[in-house]
Design a protein that fits this description.
alpha/beta; TIM Barrel; 8-stranded parallel β-barrel; 10 helices; 8 strands; binds 3-methyl-2-oxobutanoic acid
């Protein structure tokens, strides 16, 4: 199993780090046998598995429920879980309770969106023994403030802020940082200046690793086609074809056959 120290080593040795999101037991069982280095139970679970429009609807109950399901299927991968919307803003005791629930459900690290006032909280968590992954650039929990899921850091001012936040997160003790939807030149600069690994999504080739939502790379959402996404399977068509073949077999009375029946 890869640890957060292996992440560090992989960056040093210029080996790319691969992450994928996972929200449920059966996907975890499959991913566990793959070459993927680590799994993120992202708050994107609210959108992908529960049909909400944004990640704002992810709650600590939802997150810990999915972390526990993933953990039951995942034996050999590092498991990182997202701290959901406002969980670190309600109160310090709410934050500690939320992190405690995620870790007790099976997470080995937590991911927190943004820098700013999070920096002190991150320092405290790291000091308390909790590995923290940062997340800057497009931070989906702030989708309404950002007016949509858009490229960030495209102008001088915002790119400087993102670079500065990356340094602050490293200094606060983050073991790694997700860079989402930023220009690849900015991601390259951050990656070269930091000693901790950067994990990109829509941030180009120069980050130390990549993360994708499992359902996106499997092509399960035919209406989600952002520029950064490569689909490795036409999952939607494959699945609907299988369901339709089963449907036809039932209606044409060819399923079950003799071999599939008990005597
Ligand atoms: O919630 C999520 O899936 C994420 C990744 C896109 C990085 O935060």
């Amino acid at each position: 199993m890869k640890t957060i120290h292996d992440f560090q080593l992989m960056k040093k040795e210029k080996q790319k780090i691969s992450l994928v999101t996972c929200y449920d037991f059966w996907s975890a069982v499959i991913i566990d046998e793959s070459g993927i280095d680590a799994v993120l139970v992202g708050d994107s679970v609210a959108m992908v598995m529960h049909g909400f429009e944004t990640t704002v609807n992810a709650e600590i109950e939802m997150m810990s429920y999915h972390v526990a399901a993933v953990k039951r299927g995942l034996k050999n991968k590092l498991l990182i879980a997202d701290l959901p919307f406002l969980a670190h803003k309600k109160s310090y005791s709410f934050l500690i309770e939320a992190v405690d629930r995620l870790m007790k459900a099976g997470a080995q690290a937590v991911k927190i969106e943004g820098a700013g006032s999070n920096i002190e909280l991150i320092k405290n968590l790291v000091e308390a023994g909790v590995p923290v992954m940062g997340h800057i650039g497009l931070t989906p929990q702030s989708v309404h403030l950002l007016s949509g899921f858009k490229l960030q850091g495209a102008d001088d001012l915002s790119s400087k802020k993102i670079l500065n936040d990356a340094h602050l997160l490293e200094e606060a003790g983050c073991f790694s940082i997700v860079l989402e939807m930023i220009p690849s030149e900015l991601a390259k600069k951050i990656t070269s200046e930091l000693t901790i690994p950067t994990i990109g999504i829509g941030a180009g080739l120069h980050t130390d690793g990549q993360v994708l939502v499992l359902q996106d790379l499997l092509g399960l959402n035919k209406n989600f086609n952002p520029k950064f996404l490569r689909k490795y399977l036409n999952g939607f068509d494959l699945i609907i074809n299988a369901i339709n073949r089963y449907n036809s077999d039932v209606k044409e009375k060819t399923f079950p056959n003799e071999k599939e029946s008990y005597r």
